[in-house]
Amino acid sequence: MHGAGNDFVLIDDRAEEFPVHDHIRLAALAAARTGIACEGVVLVQPSQVADFRMVFFNPDGTEADLCGNGARCVAAFAFEIGVVKSSAMTFETRAGLVDAELVGNGCVKVWMPEPKNRRYGMQVQLAGQTVAGDYVEAGVPHFIVPCASVAAVDVDRLGRELRLADDFAPNGTNVDFVQYIPPSKALMRTYERGVEAESGACGTGAVAVAVIGVETKGMSLPIHVRTPQGYDLVVEGDWRRAKSTGFTLTGPVKKVFEGEIDLDSLDIGNEME
What we know:
By secondary structure, the chain is of the alpha+beta class. The chain has two domains: 2-112, Diaminopimelate Epimerase, Chain A, domain 1 (Roll); 116-251, Diaminopimelate Epimerase, Chain A, domain 1 (Roll). Helix content is 16%, strand content 40%. It is built from four helices and 18 strands. The protein has helices spanning 23-30, 68-80, 155-163, 203-216, and strands spanning 2-3, 6-7, 9-12, 41-45, 52-57, 63-64, 88-93, 96-104, 107-111, 116-126, 129-137, 141-146, 174-181, 185-192, 197-198, 223-226, 232-240, 243-254. The two termini are 36 Å apart.
């Protein structure tokens, strides 16, 4: 299933039998040439406090607190497999409880965590250059770099350097290169932590882009964020006490295929000697 070009493997793990602690096997499952190939593995598990629990793993096998597009996809998946009967639902994540609603026409809306830990006007020193940008946590950390043209950015090279910069140690950050188009549009490309490459889209990144755009660039909500795959993510919210709040993320989701995989058949540890 993909959300605005962000592709995931979604697994019904209500029996809680998936090997969640086997990070090497998780990475093998997500691998591009020897696994299924995806930008995240998402589990649906039972929850004591919500309709279900969403567990999200990056393709390198590490667990993440939240993924915006993954959250939208897991809402559609949970409805499809009968975990929830209503188009509106609440699910548990490591970033807190998330509300979601299937709003029709293949689109899903999620209510995002409040942005926090804003650091505006940063100057990040890299080897041979200084990069200006703004930092905010929108469920997960994001460093927003405004640019004249996102098409001209070497996302993998510059994104990797910024993701590992000392300013964001020890855990690093996602890096979003943004071309703002006033009053309410933006083009975005993301170097994603855990993917360790440019991703097809980034939902939490779209929210971070909106936060920075509204609070520092004079942009107006709702903001339509165009992904590299040509999809639009719509970020809505409110303006209160000189800060934006109450964000939602809406966009398309699509089931691409379903099937079964034998986890024991995955290639693990076959490096050349």
